[in-house]
Amino acid sequence: MSTSQVSTECVDAMPLAARGATLNREFRLADLARLADWAMDEQARAHLTARFHLIEKRVGVAGRVTANLRLVCQRCLAPVETPVDDEFHVVLVSSENEMDQLPEQQDSMIANAAQLELGWLLEEQLLLAMPLVPLHAKLAECAQIASNVETNEVKQRDTPQSAASLDTQRPFADLRELLSQGAKNRSN
Questions:
Q1: Which of 48, 58, 148, 163 has a C-alpha 20 to 30 A away from that of 179?
Q2: Which of these, 67, 18, 9, lies nearest to 41 by C-alpha position?
Q3: Are 124 and 109 a contacting pair, CB within 8 Å?
Q4: Which residues neighbour 59 within 8 Å (Cβ) at sequence distance 6 or greater?
Q5: Among candidates 129, 52, 57, 63, which has minimal Cα distance to 93?
Q6: Exposure on the CB side of residue 96, measured as CA atoms within 13 A
Q7: 19-54, pLDDT tens digit by residue?
Q8: Burial of 64 (0-12, 13-18, 19+ CB in 10 A)
Q9: What gap in Å lies between CA 6 and CA 188, rounded to an integer?
Q10: pLDDT tens track for 159-180
Q11: 38, burial (CB in 10 Å: exposed 0-12, middle 13-18, buried 19+)
């Protein structure tokens, strides 16, 4: 098994629901494909607590997901550590048709209850719980980051090696010469 692949466990949720079992699992964010980019570091973890129960012969899962994610602040576009802590309650259904039979206020998800992947359940719930607009808690944090970026840009501009790096960032610098050589070759 490669490290980029989720090492998650599959459970049969129906017997767990019949006995009212609770599972606590922890996953490395780097092992969860849809969350890996938001891991604070290689060892960052997400936690799932899931209590299984029966609701009219269907599996219900009441649980909680927690993780610290590195998102992008929408004010300053710098990384911001965002704690996610969300409680959920869903009913597992096998199709959209079955979903339509549930009361409108009941959250549900299409999943195979006989082979429920706990890592997938955790990913789904964390993605739903992530803030739509991640921001630093205080505007002053964004201002400080912007000030640090501006200071670094000034320092880079004032260093002697920056002139050389500017020359290497001119992809069309010799284009005029090449075009005029091509015109001369065609006229000969």
A1: 163
A2: 67
A3: yes
A4: 13, 14, 16, 17, 52, 53, 91, 92, 113, 116
A5: 57
A6: 0
A7: 999 999 999 998 999 988 888 888 899 999 999 999
A8: middle
A9: 64
A10: 555 555 555 556 666 767 767 7
A11: buried
- Per the CB < 8 A criterion, the answer to whether 8 and 26 are in contact is no
Query: At a CB cut-off of 8 Å and minimum separation 6, what does 64 contact?
Result: 47, 48, 49, 85, 86, 87, 88
pTM: 0.70
Burial class of residue 89 in the structure, from the number of CB atoms within 10 Å of its CB (0-12 exposed, 13-18 middle, 19+ buried): middle
Q: Which residue is listed with tokens 């992008």?
A: 72
Rounded-to-integer distance, Cα 113 and Cα 6, Å? 19
Report the relative pairing of strands 22-28 and 108-110 from DSSP bridges. Answer: unpaired
